[in-house]
Design a protein that fits this description.
mainly alpha
Length: about 180
């Protein structure tokens, strides 16, 4: 469920960016974009994804109350990752699946970004077209607003361009199983 929430939030951020909403009006958006840009992209394997799915299910089934105090409007991905670190029950469950909290978090972030990239491809969001439309209305807004919106769109492009294509294929392959985790 955490992965789905982060992915949906990322896609909402992208949608707001493309629609020209003021980036600063969305809570944590700039921070989340910085975090996503700093994510170490790792090539995922079937074993990574199936291990992550199994561990995530077991963590959810254990009902450890990890999400009970989270406010998604105020919680960044790195803060969410901290839920797993130092929790003995989580460490035990992850260990049963051959994962450390760090590896679990890295796989989760890479999966989330791959799901986001797959969703963007499904919706055929054309960033070049968005930039062209923005250029067409450039004179109708202050230069600073225009610059911010261009930076948002190109930032989104750079985030998804970094996702290894094989990760996107694995995200598509396992999407039904991933979306059933809650």
């Amino acid at each position: 469920m955490m992965l789905q929430r982060i992915t949906r939030f990322l896609l909402v951020c992208v949608a707001f960016s493309l629609a020209g909403a003021a980036w600063g009006q969305m809570p944590n958006t700039a921070e989340i974009m910085r975090e996503l840009q700093s994510v170490e992209m790792i090539p995922l394997t079937d074993k990574d994804v199936t291990g992550w799915i199994a561990a995530a299910r077991d963590i959810n089934d254990a009902d450890l109350g990890l999400e009970s105090n989270l406010d998604m409007d105020k919680t960044s991905p790195s803060q969410m990752r901290q839920m797993w670190v130092g929790n003995a029950d989580v460490a035990r469950i992850l260990g049963q699946h051959g994962l450390t909290p760090e590896r679990f978090g890295n796989v989760a972030m890479n999966l989330m970004m791959a799901i986001g990239a797959a969703e963007m491809a499904k919706q055929q969001v054309d960033m070049d077209e968005a930039l062209a439309q923005l250029e067409a209305i450039k004179g109708q807004m202050p230069q600073a607003q225009y610059d911010m919106m261009v930076a948002q769109i190109t930032g989104v492009q750079s985030i998804f361009a970094r996702v290894p294509p094989e990760n996107v294929e694995l995200a598509k392959k396992y999407e039904p199983e991933i979306t059933r985790i809650d």
